[in-house]
Amino acid sequence: MNVEKQKILDKINFLIDKKEAQLLSKIEIPSVHDIDDGIVIRFFTNWENCNHNDEIRYKTINDNEKPEDITVFHFIPKGTVLELEKRDYIHTIICVSGKLKLQVNNETVIIDAFNKTTLKSNEFKGVSLEDTYVITLNRP
């Protein structure tokens, strides 16, 4: 690559970085993740606090077809410890991103991005190994 092309690429990269900074300054407290070919901004409003850990945020997803079902979208920060507890409202966990390590019936279950796991028990404990986004579904 010659010097002239390199200068053009450097200017393009500078302008992209400048626009990215301007965009992010306009958004309230986003969760920004760098990826190989750009950035992903995860931004959700009206998060409620979880009863067990005020660092965990969640949003209930309404299901008009089956209103008796409870589907919840959670953000679980890295290092969050989930104490041993019975959770009747969780049957299945879909991990959108991140990683969880759970102990269910004395068995270790690792749940990472793009995996769906049906738990063998509604009583479990664990830890979030990364900042994690999960969707939980209640017991049928």
**Which stretches are poorly predicted, pLDDT < 50 over at least 5 residues?**
none
Supply the CATH class of the largest domain: Mainly Beta
Ends: how far apart?
61 Å
Q: How many strand segments? A: 12
Q: Looking at CATH, which topology of the largest domain would you report? A: Jelly Rolls
Measured on Cα atoms, how large is the radius of gyration?
20 Å
Give the % helix: 10-25%
Biggest beta sheet summary: 6 strands, antiparallel
Q: What is the CATH architecture annotation of the largest domain?
A: Sandwich
What would CATH call the homologous superfamily of the largest domain? Jelly Rolls
What is the count of helical runs? Answer: 1
Give the spatial strand order of the biggest sheet. Answer: 3-4-5-12-7-10
Average pLDDT score: 78
Structural class: alpha+beta
What features would you describe in this structure?
The chain has 140 residues and is an alpha+beta fold. The protein folds into two domains: 3-42, no CATH class; 48-137, Jelly Rolls (Sandwich), CATH 2.60.120. Helix content is 17%, strand content 45%. The chain has one helix and twelve strands, in the order H-E-E-E-E-E-E-E-E-E-E-E-E. It has a six-stranded antiparallel β-sheet, with no helix packed on it. The protein has a four-stranded antiparallel β-sheet with strand order 6-11-8-9, with no helix packed on it. Strand 1 (31-35) and strand 2 (38-42) form a beta hairpin. It is elongated and about 65 Å long.
